[in-house]
Amino acid sequence: MTTRVTVHRIDPDDPAQVDAVLDMDQLVWADDLRTPREVALADTPTRAAWIARVNGEAAGIAASWDVELSVPAAGGGASLRPVEGLTWVGVHPDHRRRGVLTALIREHLRWTRDEQGRSISVLKASEPGIYGRFGYGVTSSTVMSSFGRGTTFAAPSAVREVADATTLRTTTASPDQGRRWHALARECARTGAGHIVRSPQDSERLLADNPESRGTREPARLLWATRERRDVGAAYFHRTPKWTHGKPDGTVGVFFLVSTDAGARLALAERLVDIDLMGTTEYWVAPDDVLALWLPSPRSLGGSGVSDNMWLRIVDLPAAVAERGHAADVDLVVEVRDEILQDNAGAWRWTSTGADAAVTRTDATADLTLDIGDLGAAWLGGQTLGARAAAGFVTEHRPGAVAELDAALRTAVGPVGTIDF
Ligand SMILES: CC(C)(COP(=O)(O)OP(=O)(O)OC[C@H]1O[C@@H](n2cnc3c(N)ncnc32)[C@H](O)[C@@H]1OP(=O)(O)O)[C@@H](O)C(=O)NCCC(=O)NCCS
């Protein structure tokens, strides 16, 4: 029997539809329902949310956050672009594996491209096996790290001097710091690719305390780093106290840590790994994070290994290419496979000269063939097309073509790990 799935975008002003989204989310994610309904409703993403129905019955949901992503800029660093952050994806247990998610994703991708005019969709995945089939690639990775109390970071003296000139101040996180946080996050995002900056409204909401949903943890704190009266970094963390055999053994959980420079990062990290009554600080770093480089080797990071951080899907290839800086001139023909968005598929002449890059339709013979997901993986500098060619995903028809495109897409530093959304 074929299942007919329909997808419609909810009306954010219709309480019944918003209720339906929240009910589905709480069911799918086994929510403990301790958060008061009005608080949960205020956190429900209504800006863009979809409900999938099977025979008229609600079967699944998806939503999208309005976020900015830092992408590689011409000449180095990064620039912010508006993208869509897919979120709140869930399918009713009675309707699993009948194409409900597939219908929701197809609609999200179409809407992102055709109605929002945005070139990229990003997400954080609950499980690794879900999103590759929809053209998303793992664009950044994270090392799930755990720092013991008093961890020493062997930063060079020039960095330490900047850290010493940085002032730290602990506050309790609160919505009235949202605009300040947002402004700092935008500034930090220009230092490298892979940052997600939430909207000002969402930043405010994220900093609100909800006692029912934080369990045994304290209210979240914001540690601000300033220098010469300017914000140069901030960390969002909370402590969970614990006593083991009479000794203090609490955990510091760090959810965001952003900085405009290495000195601010060092100052923040040294404070976070040396908080009284705490034994361990958990913070997941990107492989190229300076915090990892200031330790003797990756083995010193502790934790539980490497995981995917963010997935990226190009929905409008010409726009995405024009919005991304290229590190070298290139002129070649790429055959792109995209089974969902046919406008991306086919042969493209890919050129970049100085600060300008473009793809244009061509009938010429392809120099290489790849999947749209291969580009998602390489877009922020987290993977090379060469590695994906070695794995058999990218096919080279002219020797050297893969290396030429890799040189153009190269970034000085790998992508950062980003906040959850
Ligand atoms: C993950 C989830 C959304 C999938 O929804 P679904 O409607 O069952 O997915 P579909 O039927 O559209 O599946 C499409 C394909 O993805 C595969 N797939 C779906 N979920 C998968 C998973 N967790 N791991 C691996 N493959 C998965 C299906 O087998 C199917 O493969 P096929 O095309 O080869 O037949 C659903 O199981 C769910 O709600 N899980 C709990 C919440 C969650 O993890 N949400 C994702 C948040 S990032």
UniProtKB/TrEMBL annotation:
Residue ranges that the Swiss-Prot or TrEMBL entry lists as coiled coil: none
Domain annotation N-acetyltransferase: ranges: 5-166
Sorted UniProt keywords: Transferase
GO biological process, one term: aminoglycoside antibiotic catabolic process
Pfam families documented for this protein: Acetyltransf_17, Acetyltransf_9, SCP2_2
Superkingdom per UniProt: Bacteria
InterPro entries, alphabetized: Acetyltransf_17, Acetyltransferase_Eis, Acyl_CoA_acyltransferase, Eis_dom, GNAT_dom, SCP2_sterol-bd_dom_sf
SUPFAM superfamilies per the UniProt record, alphabetical: Acyl-CoA N-acyltransferases (Nat), SCP-like
GO molecular function: aminoglycoside N-acetyltransferase activity
Name of the molecule in the record: Putative acetyltransferase
